Each structure stands twice: as C-alpha cells, then as structure tokens.
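User: Structure please.
Assistant: Input sequence and predicted structure:
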Amino acid sequence: MEKQNRNRIKLNREAIKDANHINIYILFACSLMAILSELLNELGIFTMDKVIMRITISIVFVLFVTPFIVHLISDHYLKREDGFIYQEKFKYAILIPAYIGIIILCTVLTYQTVILMVLPPLMTAQYKNSKKMVITAIVISLIMVPVTMYLGYFFGLGDRNLLKAILTEEEQMDISKRIELASWERMGVLAYHYMLPRLICVGLVNILTFCIAVRNDKMLKSMIELSDEAAKEMEKRNLMQSRVIEDLAAVIETRDSETGGHIIRTKKYVNMILNQMQNDPKYKDILDEDYIMNITNSAPLHDVGKIAITDRILLKPGRLDKEEFEEMKKHSSKGGEMIKNIFSNLDDENLSKISYDIALSHHERWDGNGYPNGIKGEEIPLPARVMAVADVYDAITSKRVYKDSIPPEEAFEIIVNGSGTQFDPDIIRNVIEIKQELIDFVNNNKKEE
C-alpha cells in the first residue's frame, strides 16, 4: 500500500510538472512572438503606433517571460528537488499572467490578437480536471470578451480596430470622441455584431477546454490504476523472491551454525551503509529504493556457495590450513554458479545480477588482491563492494571457535584503515558517517545474546 501511494504521488507530481512545463514554454514562445512583432513594427512592416506598441509589448513580454525565468532560476540553476515546476500552485503564476497579457493585447491591438483569446482556456485544460478551476476558467474567458471588446472600442488603436466599420474617421484618431459619442444604440451594435460572435467562439473553446480537462483527468486516473496494479504484481513477485532467498538462507544456516546470525547481521549492515550512501551526491542517482531493496535482500546469499564446501572444511573447529583455505575460497565462484541456476527462472534480471555479483565478488579487494578473479577498483560491482565491508566488519566483531571477537570500536578502525586497499574509499567515507550507529548495533546485539 505504501508503495502504491508513492507511485500515485509520483504520477501526480509528474502530471503537474508536465502541465507547468508545457504552459511555461507556450508563454515563452508568446513572449518571443511579441518581440518579433515589435521588431517588425519598428522596421515598418507593421504600421501600428510605435509608442503604444513599445509600451504594450514591453508589459506583455514581462508578464509572459517571468514564469519561465522563475522556472530557470529555481529548477535549473538552484536545482531545487521540489522546485516550482512541481508545485500545483505554480500554475496560477503561469495562468494569471497569461490572462492579463492576452487582455492587454486584445484591448490595445484589437483584431490582430483576438485569436489569442483561445490560449488561456487551452492552457488551463493542461491541468488535472477540477470543477472549480474549469468553472473559473470559463467565467474569466467569457468575461474577457466584453471587457476587451469595449475597452478596445474606447482605447484601442483606431486605425487597426476591429470596430473600424462603425467608427468615424474622427473617432479613429481621437479617443475622447469615442467616449463622447458613445450611446446605448452603438453599444448594442457592438454587442450584437461584434461581441456575440466572439462570445460564441470563446464559449466553444471553453467546451473544448472542459473536454480536454476531463480527458486528461481520466488518462491520469487510468495511469494511476495501471501503476497500482503493477505495484501489486511487483509486491507479489518480491514476496516470492524473498521466500526463495529466505529458504536458501535457511539451508546455509543448517550447514553452519555460526552463519545464521552472520546472515541477519550483515543484511542489517548492508542496509545501514546503503541508506547512508543514498545521501551521497555520487550515489544519489544510482541508489534508488528498488536498487537498495534488491541489494539488501540479496545480502543473505553472499555465502550460499558454502553449501558446496565439505563438512570437513566448513565445520572444522579451528583455523584452516593453506590447502583447506584454497578450497574454502571456491565458495565464491560456486555461489555465483548456484545463483545463476536458481534465479534463471525468476524473471528478475536486476535481482539475479545483484545476487550473482555479491556471491561471486564479495571477497574481491579494492587493490586487486582478492579472489576469485582478482579484479580491482570499480571493476568490482558496487553491491559486492558494500557487502565486503559488512562481511568483514561482522566477521571481526563476532566470536569464532578459532578466535575471540574484537570490540566494535577497534573493529571499526580496522575497517577504516582498509580504505583504498581492501575497501572502496568512497564507501568507507560513508561508513564513517554512521560509525556510532554501527557500533551501537553490535553492542546491542551482544546484549541480546
């Protein structure tokens, strides 16, 4: 259920981001078109009043480009994880300038920009369907029609006015004359012959807007439902994999009485280290939740190859001689082979690969002096490098028939001193950050024993 909720939040978050992104770039494109229009007017290709044009385009450009600049600063330069682009309320910072800018353009430049009236409703339709938002968009869009119509009549550019047919030449040049000669009859003509057609067109666009918003909402809900189903299937598969791993770990435990506690503890150490590494910029984009879960769940299988080692060596109550140790070292390669065979039918390449890497390579060393293949540095798979630290730390803090346990503080120093030779320095750098957490876990575990 928790994973399903995370998926829903993620999908909603992505939907908001996509809608904001599209609308920001629509406004940015409009701002570029406004600048182009101003340049063409300055060159004489357009013949509008240059002073009015400059003032109008300047105001509209600032309105249209501001959301884009805020987005660049917040989400690209400052690189905020929860930037404005993901905020649902940021849509108001996009839509409000869009409505205001279109009203200004349609008022001053009149018929040249009337078609832009359809833009704000279509931008609104990009967002998740909300009755309140749709109704508000429809009302504002319909109000825009009479507002821009009558403001355009009184204050628009006369020589390029949609209402030129009913304006005298004197009214076209003198705004005060328009106000002086305004009558109810003339306002009625404006309403019947000019405002009503616009109102019908904008109304049709609003119907389209509502349909698009409903469709977007249904698509998002369908995606969430599909995501929930996929999450449920994933949970079932993870449960099955977990049971397979637990059964294998139980088999290992029956062969070696000391290994059972080792399996539980090393799994905990691996998880603690990975959670810390997730905060490291180097691993932040690598260690997502699924990757950490797969590594943690695979950790108990790191010594699965010991099943193939004879009891004479595995259960020997003392140190192994050189020949016995060479035989014991084979548990890594044998473990890798076993993982390949067991996981071949599980249809999870990620878990299979991680389990294989851990079983095969958890005894490799950073300096290349490990086994079974003598690989070094980052040639060693990351899961195996983490497992190596957890495995050694538990081994030296645990009592064996052939040795006493080392105090956790002293054991920690041994691990740190192995940085750059036995262990990955970057992993050790993160391990140092959780020193007390590791030490406390060892001490608490010994008390429980």
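DSSP finds 18 helices and no strands in the chain.
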